[in-house]
Amino acid sequence: MDVKGLKVASxxxxxxxxxxxxxxxxxxQWRGTHWTFRVRRLPRxxxxxxxxxxxxxxxxxxxxxxxxxxxxxxxxxxxxxxRAKSNGDILLTTSVGVQTFVxxxxxxxxxxxxxxxxxxxxxxxxxxxxxxxxxxxxIAKDYRNLGWDQQALKLLGEAYLGKEDSKSAISTYEKLFxxxxxxxxxxxxxxxxxxxxxxxxxxxxxxxxxxxxxxGTSDETPQALVIRGDVRASxxxxxxxxxxxxxxxxxxxxxxxxxxxxxxxxTSLEKLRDKRAKNLFQRLVKEYPSSSWxxxxxxxx
Length: 301
What we know:
- The radius of gyration is 23 Å and the shape is elongated.
- By secondary structure, it is mainly alpha-helical.
- The protein has 13 helices and 8 strands.
- It has 3 domains: 1-63 and 200-301, Serine Threonine Protein Phosphatase 5, Tetratricopeptide repeat (Alpha Horseshoe); 66-111, SH3 type barrels; 113-180, Alpha Horseshoe (Serine Threonine Protein Phosphatase 5, Tetratricopeptide repeat), CATH 1.25.40.
- 53% of the residues lie in helices and 11% in strands.
- The chain has helices at 22-25, 44-63, 117-125, 129-142, 148-162, 166-179, 188-198, 202-215, 220-234, 238-250, 258-271, 277-287, 292-298; strands at 28-30, 35-37, 68-71, 76-78, 81-84, 90-94, 97-101, 106-110.
- The strands form 3 sheets. A 3-stranded antiparallel sheet has the order 4-3-8, with no helix packed on it.
- Helix 5 (148-162) packs antiparallel against helix 6 (166-179), helix 6 packs antiparallel against helix 7 and helix 11 (258-271) packs antiparallel against helix 12 (277-287).
């Protein structure tokens, strides 16, 4: 493809050339100079209801300090102590004694926060990964099936990424997803994608990114496009990376990833010896002057 003749005004597509599914939910309108999304505003009563629901949810989380079990029918049973067996059974100490809940009988089991969790978080924030990792690893083992194993594994994966140990990071995220399949649909997947990128597992990463681009939300799709652009840039495919970065820019206006996409699109054009790279760097500095990416772009103008 002749990149110099490219006019980026197309709907982002996955590797099969199909439009990302979220585009159908957010129709585009051409305003003469730029694209915008046509999104209806929420009814006022619904908006107020959402606020009340969020406040109530926050209050529930604040007061829920004791260990508890939630059964499949939604019933909550609180206790004073909770333990999990290796087979997934839960032992909950209540006012009437120790009750056993076999795996499959309950929907969720939650223990009190481990005493060492905040210590591990503090060490992680200080980039003392070698000290944080053993604490997080122990929490993940001791609190298996008790909620905090998920939190520990997420942070453990990030700690390994901080150490540039992509192999251990990949192993940790995949362990998390095996134990808690729904975690792969949450924020943890982005750390996993970075681990795959740094571990040079491009084929696996491309498959997973393709699914997010096809089925993800309007926030997730542009972010996945940026990462796919990184994959192609790492393979020396500057043309392919440029196209993905530009798709992310087009369908991510105002989003946090846009300064990064602008900078990387400019870098891709630089490698293609396209003079329009400077225009992208100037646009980045003008539109996002406080961004760290703008600081990098300043030296290229």
